[in-house]
C-alpha cells in the first residue's frame, strides 16, 4: 500500500469506526499471501467482531487508506493489542489519536521503521524488537518427545506442553489462526531450553498446523539467540520483517494556557 506523499492537507480524511459489514473494505489494502501482512489481516478481517474495535482512515465514503485494530486477546489479559496499518506518519498519528485514550495502555505492534513516527504522541516502555520467522515446510524437522502432551488454550486453540514432577517447563500454542497462516508462541523456563523441551513443543505445534495446511509464523526477540537457533533448527527462516512491540500510553493533550496576557 502506498500513500500519496504530497502536502498534509491532501492526506486529511475522516477517521471513524467500521461496522462488521465494512471490514471487507480493508481487504484490498492487504496482501493475504504475505507473511508480513498476515497479523494485520487476521485482526482486520477475522478476529471476533465483539472483541475488536476497527478504525478506518477514510479518504472517501468507501475508500480506506489505513486502519487501526484494537483487540482483546489472550496475549495480554490486561492490555488490548493495537495493530495499526498505515503507510504515512499523519495517517498513523490520526488513527492512534482517535483510538487510544490517555491513561489506558495498549500493547502496540509497529514496523520498526515507524517507531519514530509515534514517539511524540505516545510514551513507549518495555520496547522489544521482534524478527518474523516463517516455516519452510520443506525444511521442517519433527521432534519426537514422549513427554509432550496435547491440550487446548482457554480460547480452544491447540497447545502442547511438557510437564515433569517438578512442574511445567515448556509450552507452545497459537496466538491467532487465519486461512493461510497461524502465529505460534513458545513459553519455556531454563530447564525447558536446556533439556530440549522448548524445541519439542515448538515442533509439535508446527506439525499440528501443517496437518491443517497452515503455515506457521513465529516472532522471536532479536536478543533471544537461543530461540532463534531453535526455530532455525526446526525449519523456520527469517522473513526480513522486524516489528517493534511495546506498551504504549497516549500522552494527554496539554491544558490550554488561560493566563491573561
Question: What features would you describe in this structure?
Answer:
There is one protein chain. The chain is an alpha+beta fold. It folds into 2 domains: 128 residues, Gcn5-related N-acetyltransferase (GNAT) (Aminopeptidase), CATH 3.40.630.30; 98 residues, Aminopeptidase. The chain is built from 6 helices and 12 strands. A hairpin with a 3-residue loop joins strand 9 and strand 10. The protein starts with 13 loop residues before the first strand and ends in an 11-residue tail after the last strand. The N terminus is likely disordered.
Key phrases:
Aminopeptidase; 2 domains; 12 strands; 6 helices; twelve-stranded mixed β-sheet; 261 residues; disordered N terminus; alpha+beta; globular
Broad CATH class of the largest domain: Alpha Beta
Global morphology: globular
Low-confidence stretches: 1-10
Main beta sheet: strand number and arrangement?
12 strands, mixed
Gap from first CA to last CA: 48 Å
- Residue-averaged pLDDT, rounded? 91
Summed up, the domain count is: 2
The percentage helix is 10-25%
**Spatial ordering of strands, largest sheet:** 1-2-3-4-5-12-6-11-10-9-8-7
Compute the number of helices. 6
The SSE order reads EHEEEHEHEEEEEHHEHE
Strand content: 35-45%
Level-2 CATH architecture of the largest domain: 3-Layer(aba) Sandwich
| Number of DSSP strand runs | 12
Structural class call reads alpha+beta
CATH H-level superfamily title of the largest domain: Gcn5-related N-acetyltransferase (GNAT)
Rg over CA atoms, rounded to whole Å, is 20 Å
Amino acid at each position: 500500500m502506498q500513500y500519496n506523499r504530497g502536502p498534509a492537507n491532501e492526506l486529511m480524511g475522516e477517521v471513524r469506526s467500521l461496522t462488521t459489514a465494512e471490514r471487507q473494505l480493508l481487504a484490498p489494502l492487504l496482501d493475504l499471501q504475505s507473511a508480513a501482512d498476515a497479523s494485520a489481516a487476521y485482526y482486520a478481517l477475522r478476529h471476533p467482531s465483539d472483541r475488536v474495535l476497527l478504525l478506518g482512515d477514510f479518504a472517501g465514503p468507501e475508500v480506506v487508506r489505513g486502519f487501526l485494530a484494537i483487540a482483546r486477546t489472550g496475549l495480554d489479559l490486561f492490555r488490548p493489542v493495537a495493530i495499526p496499518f498505515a503507510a504515512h506518519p499523519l495517517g498513523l498519528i490520526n488513527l492512534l489519536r482517535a483510538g487510544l485514550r490517555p491513561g489506558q495502555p495498549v500493547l502496540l505492534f509497529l514496523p520498526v521503521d515507524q517507531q519514530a513516527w509515534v514517539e511524540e504522541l505516545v510514551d513507549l516502555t518495555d520496547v522489544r524488537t521482534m524478527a518474523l520467522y516463517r516455516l519452510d515446510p520443506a525444511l521442517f524437522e519433527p521432534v519426537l518427545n514422549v513427554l509432550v502432551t496435547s491440550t487446548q488454550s482457554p480460547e480452544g486453540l491447540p497447545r502442547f506442553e511438557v510437564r515433569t514432577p517438578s512442574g511445567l517447563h515448556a509450552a507452545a500454542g497459537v496466538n491467532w489462526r487465519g486461512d493461510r497462516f497461524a502465529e505460534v508462541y513458545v513459553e519455556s523456563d531454563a530447564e525447558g531450553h536446556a533439556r530440549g523441551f522448548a524445541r519439542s513443543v515448538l515442533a509439535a505445534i508446527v506439525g499440528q498446523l501443517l496437518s491443517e495446511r497452515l503455515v506457521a509464523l513465529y516472532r522471536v526477540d532479536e536478543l533471544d539467540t537461543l530461540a532463534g537457533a531453535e526455530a532455525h533448527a526446526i525449519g523456520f527462516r527469517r522473513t526480513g520483517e522486524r516489528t517493534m512491540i511495546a506498551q504504549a500510553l497516549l500522552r494527554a493533550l496539554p491544558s490550554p494556557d488561560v493566563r491573561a496576557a
